Amino acid sequence: MSQLDLSIEAGVSARHLSFVETGRARPSPELILRLAEQLDMPLAERNRMLLAGGYAPAYPSHELSDPELAPVRAAARHVLDGHSPYPAVLIDQHWRLVEANPAVALLTAGAEPHLLTPPINVLRLSLHPDGMAPRILNLPEWRAHLLHRLRQQAATTNDPALYELHEELRGYPGGNGHAAPINDAVSRVVIPLRYRHNDQELSFFSTTTLFGTPLDVTVAGLAIEAFFPADPTTTETLHTFALAKA
């Protein structure tokens, strides 16, 4: 975005924006927030911009255990429970597991204990050779998909922790080779997760749900990753698994 484009979108003169950029004029907190809004910056980055301008942060950042976030946790729990018997997890901005429904146990069965000890990072659990990776039948494809998402998130948030996680995961094995192509309806529209459970091949597609209009840094980083069965065999297996755990 050019300086002129940004000035038009933010409703400020290009001359004043130029003065702000070169340090000849000090922006008001309102202007900082307006520019951050137009640049679609994460809330944490907006707070850092305000601090750099000499102002107090505008967005709070609560702990998930704080009473203020109790309704958010309750809402997420309701979604996770309602998604059963299909797997779903609530993760934070660094892909750490906050909560999961019982169906997730089907995917994590066989993972080494050190990957299941809190704090659990779901990307590390997915791609680590001691985790889910040996049972992901289309690992190169799924790995490329997750790394692309993580790289985009790191670039958007400018979060060093996400860049470090990306470099760690990029070093795991499994990036070479190709999964056997499957010409089914789901594979033509989304990237499926093809997963081996015992002697069965299961197929999932996933959705990501974010909280709308967040005003808290922590809430803005939360997401629900939900997995849906992509074929009748997977549907039947998940229902059978849920009955066995009941």
Model description:
With 246 residues, the protein is α+β, with helices and mostly antiparallel strands. It has 2 domains: 3-52, no CATH class; 67-245, Beta-Lactamase, CATH 3.30.450.180. The chain has 11 helices and 5 strands; from the N terminus they run αααααββααααββαβα. The protein has helices at residues 3-10, 14-22, 29-38, 43-52, 70-83, 104-108, 122-127, 139-157, 160-170, 217-220, 232-245, and strands at residues 88-91, 97-100, 193-197, 200-210, 223-229. A 5-stranded antiparallel β-sheet has the order 2-1-5-4-3. Helix 1 packs across helix 3 (29-38) and helix 8 packs antiparallel against helix 9 (160-170). The protein starts with a helix and ends with a helix.
Q: What is the ordering of alpha helices and beta strands?
A: HHHHHEEHHHHEEHEH
Q: What's the CATH C level of the largest domain? A: Alpha Beta
CATH topology of the largest domain: Beta-Lactamase
Rg (C-alpha, Å) = 21 Å
Low-pLDDT residue intervals, each spanning 5 or more residues: none
